[in-house]
Amino acid sequence: MNINSAKTFLIITVIIDSMGIGLIGPVMPALLKELGNVDVSAAAIWGGLLATSFAFMQFCFGPLLGNLSDSYGRRPILLISLFVMAIDYVIMGYAASIWILFVGRLIGGMTAATHSTAMAYMADISKNDEKSQNFGLIGAAFGIGFVLGPLLGGILGEFSSRAPFYAAALLAFSNFCLGYFVLPETVNEKNKRPFKLLRANPLGALKHLSKIVGVSRLLFILFIYDIAFYVYPAIWAYWSEERFGWLPIQIGYSFAAFGFCMAITQGYLMRKIIKYVGERKTVVFALYLNMICFFLIAFVSQPWMIWLLIPIISLGVIAGPALQGLMSQAVPDDQQGELQGLLTSIAAIGMIVSPLLMTSTFGFFTGDQTVLYFPGSPFIISLILIGFCILLFLKKGNNMRD
Question: How many domains does the chain have?
Fold first, then answer.
């Protein structure tokens, strides 16, 4: 197998996949207000519940799919998840009530294995000291998709709150077709592991992976980090509409700008940073940077300040791939899918907790009955959580090697 060709195919797959996800972000507030006949504060809470239902299914099924990919291959798991994702977007596009949106999110969450399977695939074709950088390439591909997806979603949202869902379904199905014809399999007799049901759940996977020195601490740090960082997808559309009165197209532009900067950061800058300072110092640098950004965003007063902050915010994203790289280096080849499945579950818990925490906080501090109007309050919570991550990561006794 040609490694460079495989990377190219994988990056294209992730770009198309993330375009579909980014398409629907700018129109969710408008669609929820339309279906529920509610204001933006209530729509934010409904949005948090939708994200939580999706994440709960990811939590339950992530390790199962990761273990299946270790046993039966990355290719079939990836293709099945893409096909069901296309169906999920069609269901949401035709939704006549918020409850139908919930059904779509539950179905999509069950097979939302594209990102974790892509990470396991990349680990299969990467040398040990290249894993963090190559995980950054996946993040960069995701960022490119988020440049194109929200931009297109914002434009389509001007015509209809449903149009982006149909476009996302078309992209997901196109991605399925592309993968079917060009994506080779990376699991072979050397890195194949027999399927065991007892390990195909979050607790079973955690039990086995935590036996590896230092992994359990990094898993916990990544979990707290995810809760903090998910404040952006959880609250950004609602916060920017409430704080600055942005329309869907403006929200789409901001998502696109973030995606563009994230692509540069993870596709190019991250490789340079890790080369000179290593994964551990990269994690510390990125975590401190996130704290600063959360503080500034919480108190920003003018829209132009956000555009200046977006490149800095995107640099903080490298903490995630660097943490994942440290763990992937420590885990055997036949457990890469299990690791990525568990990381999907951990991210899913973060996606359950963060939207509920952040949207309810936002609703409380922006509702009609609030005693203190403070739209930026969710970002203060994220700042505190990142501070805890720093303390835990720097704690003596962390034996993970650089």
Answer: 1
